[in-house]
Design brief:
heterodimer, A: 280 residues, alpha+beta, Immunoglobulin-like, 2 domains, five-stranded antiparallel β-sheet, five-stranded mixed β-sheet, 10 strands, B: 445 residues, Rossmann fold, membrane (chain B), transmembrane helix (chain B), Dolichyl-diphosphooligosaccharide--protein glycosyltransferase 48 kDa subunit (chain B), endoplasmic reticulum (chain B), signal (chain B)
């Protein structure tokens, strides 16, 4: 047996050097799990042409490729060193599978795609399939894209942890989404409500004038204007606090203003009660 | 004799200023000096200091007193089984950790030492005795009959001018040696030269390639790596790739689409060795500044949210031994608080890269982060930390139109109080005639 092997090596090494290789009986097809390959489910492809339709397969189906490799001169079957199927994915990644010959010297690739997908390194989708044939004894090595296949193969999602990711390309730009300010009512509505809010004061003054206000109780005391100017001043200070002063400035002024207003108020009340006592 | 120390100091400074790197070259024997003289001389001509030794020389050492005594290590000895002296794959890893750069050239007679070294750095050479075989692209003149001397076309090179030079002008190169593959978890691997799709790695004397470990363009002929400390490693499957014979050879590919001509090995080897020795593709940060738009200096304390800021970074690139302004246009700035809130591309104005943007309306401790990683360049990483604080209560918008009803009601109430106090204190009811005064009122009065 060993002798036979060595002889065959010697045979190919010595006699095939001058010859070209030819692919004959090339058939390709997608078969179900238990389907027997026959003339109906396989398609013949003429050498160096391409299967017109794309093959479609899922992981449970078999890819079946069979062909013979013969010398052009005498049609003798040969067994070159390199008989591969090469699948090229769309991103250029490729997978190479070895085609083995059977006992009759015919080359047959017949594997369930789920089994074959182990060497596909998570590739799936559309592939171009090429037949590669080469040997030191072959003058015309073959690299023939004979069909396209759309194979949905099982893939495992294996994410790289963020700390191990190495990204060489520029990333997408990020613009910060600023919080949108709340929608505000129109100027007409705010002005209308400003007027409505001011109206009670106007109504108050109007009603007072209607019932007829007088100041006959006012005592003739210098504290009276001081008190009211002081009170108005406190509110004026409050307005300034809103517009420009800080808390400490406001308290400083308030301590002076408040003191005088307090004393003046006290005097006004005293004057009022004295007038009342006198009138009784 | 007083000036002697000064003179010595001046000499030592002068020695340091010339960028003479010390390189340890290991060959299978010292004869590598002759077989690879063109390659080694091209390195020497750039002013570097070469020490050529046999890989099993018992005096070999990379460190002296814990300090590396070489900047670079070239191993052109594929067959070495065990390194001599204190050298070992482990020691070479330490050398890389210390910033040393390593060039390894293997061959089909690859020994355990190099295979182990490759595994240490995330690559795997195929086994000894195997060769890269390509029946479609072998060299008809140089090949000895087993189709292992292969012609590599420029589309198999990595798309990075810094590593492989101007590949568009490069002539096909010749390769003869062992295949290489990056480890599955090696995310830093660079496929400097891929094998062609028709190539595979197997024993060239076997009758049938039944189960090649490596096949197709997944296999590498030359692989590279820039480690996280920016040390560079290149692993070539072929020591002949660097040899005088291949430098001078003319290619004659079996593939009719590749025209015959002088080989590009010399140019490609020169580009790769310049990259591995960090003579090309080295970046550094010269200065970084950031400030509010319209100002010149960063704020004394913190930035406030939604302020407009300007960030400027000056980057320099090492070109022909000189630091020149970096011209890259794809450097990005991130403003990061755990995750990036803003990412903008910096505008390059002769090495001065600027970005202006509005700070996000989120408070916290942020970083101005430039993380520039491109194939062939050293990894540029710069972080500037700043705090972004919320507005003072006085910094918000005042006198909002839609708040006028609130202002009006407060002030009308105050005015009302002033008026009411006057009316309440001084108003005197005039008794209305005909109105019966209540008993209770009478008693009160």
């Amino acid at each position: 047996m060993k002798l036979l092997f060595i002889l065959s090596v010697l045979f190919t090494a010595t006699f095939a050097t001058v010859d070209d290789v030819a692919v004959t009986n090339f058939k390709v097809g997608i078969l179900a799990k238990d389907q027997v390959p026959d003339g109906e489910n396989l398609k013949n492809v003429v050498v160096h042409s391409k299967l017109p339709n794309e093959l479609k397969a899922d992981a449970s189906q078999r890819l079946y490729v069979s062909f013979n490799l013969v010398k052009k001169s005498d049609n003798a079957k040969i067994k070159p060193q390199q008989v591969f199927l090469r699948f090229v994915a769309q991103d250029g990644e490729d997978v190479v599978l070895v085609v083995k010959d059977d006992s009759n010297g015919n080359y047959v690739y017949d594997t369930i795609l789920r089994t074959a997908s182990k060497s596909f390194r998570n590739l799936s989708g559309q592939f171009k399939i090429s037949l590669l044939v080469g040997d030191v004894t072959i003058k015309n090595p073959i690299n023939w894209n004979f069909a396209d296949i759309d194979a949905s193969l099982p893939t495992v999602y294996e994410p790289t942890p963020k700390s191990q990711q190495v990204r060489y390309e520029p990333l997408n730009e990020i613009t910060h989404e600023f919080r949108q300010p709340e929608k505000r009512p129109s100027a007409v509505i705010s002005d209308l409500f400003t007027v409505i809010c001011l109206s009670p004061l106007v109504v108050l003054i109007g009603l007072w004038l209607q019932i007829g206000i007088n100041f006959q109780n006012a005592p003739a005391s210098p504290w009276v204007p001081i008190f009211h100017v002081g009170l108005a001043g406190i509110f004026g200070l409050y307005f300034l606090f809103w517009v420009q002063f800080n808390m400490f400035e406001t308290l400083k002024y308030l301590s002076v203003l408040g003191f005088f207003t307090f004393v003046a108020g006290n005097r006004v009340l005293r004057a009022l009660s004295e007038t009342k006592e006198k009138s009784e | 004799m007083r000036w002697l120390p000064v003179l010595l100091l001046a000499v030592s400074i002068a020695v340091q200023e010339t960028s003479a790197d010390r390189i340890l070259v290991l060959g299978e024997s010292v004869a590598v000096k002759d077989t690879h003289s063109n390659f080694l001389n091209s390195v020497k001509e750039r002013g570097h200091e070469l020490t050529v030794r046999a890989a099993d020389d018992s005096q070999l050492a990379l460190f002296k007193h814990g300090q590396p005594i070489f900047e670079h290590l070239f191993i052109l000895a594929p067959g070495v089984q065990v390194f001599g002296g204190s050298l070992s794959p482990n020691e070479i890893s330490k050398f890389v950790d210390a910033g040393g750069n390593v060039l390894v050239a293997a061959g089909s007679n690859i020994g355990d030492a190099l295979r182990e070294l490759a595994v240490e750095h995330g690559f795997e050479f195929d086994e000894a005795g195997t060769s890269v075989i390509d029946h479609h692209n072998y060299d008809k003149t140089l090949d000895s009959g087993d189709h292992t001397t292969i012609v590599v076309s420029k589309d198999q090179l990595i798309n990075a001018e810094l590593i492989v030079g101007n590949s568009a002008k490069l002539s096909p190169v010749i390769f003869k040696g062992v295949g290489l593959i990056p480890g599955k978890t090696n995310n830093l691997a660079l496929n400097i030269v891929k094998a062609s799709g028709t190539a595979y790695s197997f024993d060239p004397n076997a009758a049938r390639a039944t189960n090649p470990a490596l096949a197709g363009s997944r296999m590498l002929l030359i692989g590279g790596l820039q480690s996280r400390n920016n040390a560079r490693i290149v692993l070539s499957g072929s020591v002949d790739f660097f040899s005088n014979a291949f430098f001078a050879a003319k290619t004659n590919s079996a593939n009719p689409s590749v025209k015959p001509g002088p080989s590009g090995n010399g140019e490609l080897a020169a580009a790769i060795v310049q990259w591995v020795m960090k003579e090309s593709g080295v970046l550094r940060v010269k200065s970084v500044s950031h400030h509010k738009n319209g100002e010149m200096v960063p704020p004394a304390e913190d930035y406030f949210i939604t302020e407009d800021v300007v960030y400027t970074i000056e980057i320099e690139e090492l070109k022909n031994g000189k630091w020149v302004p970096f011209q890259g246009k794809d450097v990005q700035l991130e403003f990061v608080r755990i995750d990036p809130f803003v990412r903008v591309t910096l505008k390059n104005n002769n090495g001065k890269l600027t970005a202006a943007f509005k700070l996000p309306d989120v408070l916290g401790v942020f970083k101005f982060l430039v993380d520039y990683r491109r194939v062939g360049y050293t990894h540029l990483y710069d972080v500037q930390q700043v705090s972004v604080r919320p507005l003072w209560h006085t910094q918000y918008e005042r006198f909002i139109r839609s708040a006028y009803p609130y202002y009006a009601s407060s002030f009308s109430m105050m005015a009302g109080l002033v008026l009411f106090s006057i009316v309440y204190l001084y108003h005197k009811d005039s008794p209305v005639k005909g109105v019966k005064v209540l008993d209770s009122e009478k008693k009160k009065n």
